[in-house]
Amino acid sequence: MKSLLFLLMASASVAAAPSSFNAAKKQLVSVYDQLPGATTFYCGCDYRRKGKKLLPDLHSCGYRVRKQKTRADRIEWEHVVPAWAFGHQLQCWQEGGRKNCRKDQRFKVMEADMHNLVPALGEVNGDRAHYRFSDMGQTPFQYGRCEMVVDFKGRRVQPPERARGAIARTYLYMQEQYRVKLSGSQLKLMQSWDNLYPVTTQECERHRRVSQRQGWPNPHVAQQCQQLEANANP
């Protein structure tokens, strides 16, 4: 049986990476609309497709609106590694921020990388901003049963355990793929989460679909999925 990594690499010749962030969002709606068992990334809310958008079911995950009802009622495509985090390391950002970087080809590729994009409730996406991920040991309290904690004063976010492995593998991928600089403490945390929270079959299926559309894999996910497949089919 050919390995998952080989199959994903072979698909690169027929896949077409999205040319912009907007193009990536359109492709991701189709990816997630047909992804078995998929829910919003942080809160685990069910959703349904309506035209070109995905609409969340807040009752399905016990979500309580903190402040922004309009944004809570929609799904937004969240950069796990924020655009600020990789953008401000580029000269274009220093000279004019995100708007100016939209003219920079390297930034456009990074901004549209679907391995770094996940569906999140708009309010959670807005509250997270570009705060760094952390394990603060806090009991979630802000969003009902959604186990997300945003420390606005400390500019930190504690994500649910269900999302930590995927977050870690995304950070490690962005570091290697685009030379995004991580602090020593960030790198250590992501390596720890990668080990503590291995891939699930659902993460592997999502990765397979994204890789086939975009043209290349996230090796940190692909390698674990390959091992998961081997263990399931000895």
Short synopsis of the structure:
With 234 residues, the chain is an alpha+beta fold. Helix content is 47%, strand content 12%. The chain has helices at residues 4-10, 21-33, 69-72, 83-87, 91-94, 97-101, 105-111, 122-128, 161-178, 184-196, 201-214, 219-232; strands at 46-50, 53-57, 75-79, 117-121, 132-133, 149-151, 156-158.
Count of extended strands: 7
State the helical fraction. Answer: 40-55%
- How would you classify the helix and strand content by structural class? alpha+beta
Lateral arrangement of strands in the main beta sheet:
5-7-6
* Major pleated sheet: 3 strands, mixed
How would you describe the shape? globular
Question: Distance between termini?
Answer: 11 Å
β-strand amount: 5-15%
What radius of gyration results from the CA coordinates? 17 Å
Count of structural domains: 1
Low-confidence segments, given as residue ranges, are: 1-14
Separate helix tally: 12
- What is the string of helix and strand elements? HHEEHEHHHHEHEEEHHHH
Q: Give the rounded overall mean pLDDT.
A: 92
Family: Belongs to the EndA/NucM nuclease family.
Signal peptide: 1-17
Organism: Ferrimonas sediminicola
Keywords: Hydrolase, Nuclease, Signal
